[in-house]
Design brief:
- By secondary structure, this protein is an alpha+beta fold.
- It folds into two domains: 2-104, Alpha-Beta Plaits; 108-242, Alpha-Beta Plaits (2-Layer Sandwich).
- 21% of the residues lie in helices and 29% in strands.
- It is built from five helices and ten strands.
- Strands 1, 2, 3, 4, 5, 6, 7, 8, 9 and 10 form a ten-stranded mixed beta sheet that branches.
- The longest helix has 13 residues, at 196-208.
- The two termini are 13 Å apart.
- The relative contact order is 0.19.
- The mean pLDDT is 95.
């Protein structure tokens, strides 16, 4: 039995999120169905570095699973990509140590959020960017972003009803870059709460639109109350960009 680490990308548009759900099309469901076919109808469970919501995309999601099959790493990629739908792509498969855990061994993750900044919408990017036609004060947004960096209780940036008790997380970096007609907000941290990145983006956009001063971010975080924060940005602009594992023993 070998443990395999798999890096994959997916277009979240037509999925009801990553996690398997009854009577819903999910990324996990498609992955496990493909593995089941490879293993002659034997169920193979996959574990992901984290879940993504409906409409959220991934460039570098990471999963692991255990398999009795002995295949070269490149053959795993070919076999899985043949069986998977065209909105999931396996980028890399490699054998790892038996005690490797794709979620517990994460050192940091990066998410990116793409905002389309122009007056007219782009129909061909409507599932991959969030259209914001009004002017944004980028300098104010960048100042506000500095208050997100660091170790904080992110209760105000966590979706209401989340069952997680410990809401302290560390954000290492927040970057806001203009790339042609898109504004890309990148956030790197040791972990993220449910909808944390989308809520953070929604608050940064509120600052950029002049609804509050940059210092409001610090005040909102101190209040630890989701109701005190601004609206959540929609899912289609969000990408799980990269998942890093600092200490991982390759075989």
């Amino acid at each position: 039995m070998a443990r395999l680490k798999c890096v994959l990308a997916y277009d979240g548009t037509r999925f009801s999120g990553y996690q398997i759900q009854a009577n819903r099309r999910t990324v996990q469901g498609e992955l496990e169905e493909a593995l089941k076919r490879m293993h002659k109808d034997k169920a193979i469970r996959v574990t992901a570095s984290g879940r993504t919501d409906a409409g959220v995309h991934a460039v570098g999601q990471v999963i692991h699973f255990d398999s009795p099959l002995l295949l070269p790493d490149e053959n795993w990629c070919k076999a899985l990509n043949t069986l998977l739908p065209d909105d999931i792509f396996i980028k890399q498969v490699q054998e790892v140590a038996d005690d490797f855990h794709v979620r517990f061994d994460v050192s940091h993750k990066e998410y990116r959020y793409r905002i389309l900044r122009r007056q007219q919408p782009d129909l061909f990017r409507r599932f991959y960017t969030y259209h914001v036609p009004n002017d944004l004060d980028i300098a104010a947004m960048r100042e506000a972003a500095t208050y997100i960096i660091g170790t904080h209780d992110f209760s105000a940036f966590c979706a209401a009803g989340t069952q997680v008790i410990d809401k302290v997380r560390t954000v290492y970096d927040v970057r806001i870059d203009q790339q042609e007609d898109e504004l890309v907000i990148s956030m790197v941290g040791n972990g993220f709460l449910y909808q944390m990145v989308r809520i953070a983006v929604g608050n940064l956009l509120a600052i950029g639109q002049g609804k509050a001063t940059p210092l409001a971010i610090a005040t909102i975080l101190t209040m630890k109350d989701r109701k005190k924060a601004f609206a959540t940005a929609p899912p289609q602009g969000l990408y799980l960009w990269e998942v890093s594992h600092e200490t991982m023993n390759m075989l």
